[in-house]
Amino acid sequence: MCATFTAEDEGKDVVNANGDQIGIVSEVDVGTAYVNPDPGMTDTLKSQLGWGDADEDTYPIDDNNVKAITDREIRLKRT
Description:
It contains one helix and six strands, in the order βββαβββ. By secondary structure, it is mainly β.
């Protein structure tokens, strides 16, 4: 799925392929969703998604990593 993010996605949970919440969409800007990861999951999440070190508290979601968008959550593919 190539996701199309809108302002309506702000506030949705972001979950991994196992259904575990890994963050919340804090902002959608020009079609890019930015997730604020659960602080306890930050290092794991960065590693799994290849984000490396970042200075900000939010990270863009690569729309190619999205399996589904529902009314309540954005579910990521297993990588």
